[in-house]
Design brief:
By secondary structure, the chain is of the alpha/beta class. It is 43% helix and 19% strand. It contains nine helices and seven strands, in the order αααβαβαβαβαβααββ.
């Protein structure tokens, strides 16, 4: 199949989302309210949200960790999937206080109980994650069985390590978004000059004996990218 067909990616995505991911009032509001508050439109697409929701259902997850809340769009997808799994909780980390407030409003508008079904913690991921570990060691918090990393790209490997560390164990999932764009923009592959200070997430995960992982390249209305998904052995 010719790569020229990629030119039709946006049209294909529009067609498939029309039939498979019809808009809901809650998710439409989350997008609109986030935009109205100046939050950039960099959340996952509707198709990606649905995909994450299906993965959550397939894995039987009950406790999800999300790094990078933004306006809470993906958090809503996770919360809805957890309800279908019989209940659970999303714990999301957001560094920006204004965005955190918007995300909480969006979650509540979607009928998600905060903080019972979704908790949005304020702070930098690498500051909050050690605190979560201490709470787990004290018996105050359960370990996670699905970790979604959608935060600052330069820390993808460090977030991945924390994700595996905070998982329940065998069968837990760690999903890192924007991996292909980070590989290209940091010059790990492609024509850009190599950023010697940037970690190669893929190489590091390949050496990590705790997981089995794969990178899937994606294309759609949001351009060319891809994600890494790992399952804990």
């Amino acid at each position: 199949m010719s790569v020229r067909n990629v030119a039709h990616a946006a049209a294909v995505e529009t067609h498939t989302e029309t039939h498979l991911v019809p808009p809901t009032a809650a998710l439409t509001h989350a997008y609109a309210n986030s935009t109205a508050h100046g939050i950039p439109m960099i959340a996952v697409s509707p198709s990606q949200g649905k995909f994450l929701s299906l993965l959550t259902s397939l894995s039987g997850a009950r406790n999800v960790l999300e790094l990078g809340t933004l306006g809470g769009y993906s958090s809503i997808w996770f919360a809805q999937a957890l309800k279908g799994n019989g209940g659970g909780k999303v714990t999301s980390i957001e560094i920006d206080g204004a965005r955190r407030a918007v995300s909480i409003a969006n979650l509540q508008h979607a009928g998600v109980r905060v903080p019972q079904e979704a908790e949005v913690l304020l702070g930098a991921g690498l500051d909050v994650l050690p605190r979560l570990e201490r709470e787990m060691q004290a018996g105050e918090r359960e370990r996670f069985d699905f970790v979604f990393v959608d935060a600052d790209w330069e820390n993808q490997w460090r977030y991945f390590e924390w994700g595996v560390k905070l998982c329940k164990g065998k069968g837990s999932v760690v999903y890192v978004d924007n991996v292909v764009r980070q590989l290209l923009e940091s010059g790990v592959v492609g024509p850009e000059e190599r950023d010697e200070g940037a970690d190669d997430l893929v190489e590091n995960v390949g050496k990590d004996g705790r997981v089995e992982a794969v990178v899937m390249q994606t294309v759609g209305a949001k351009d060319y990218d891809g994600f890494l998904m790992a399952v804990v052995k």
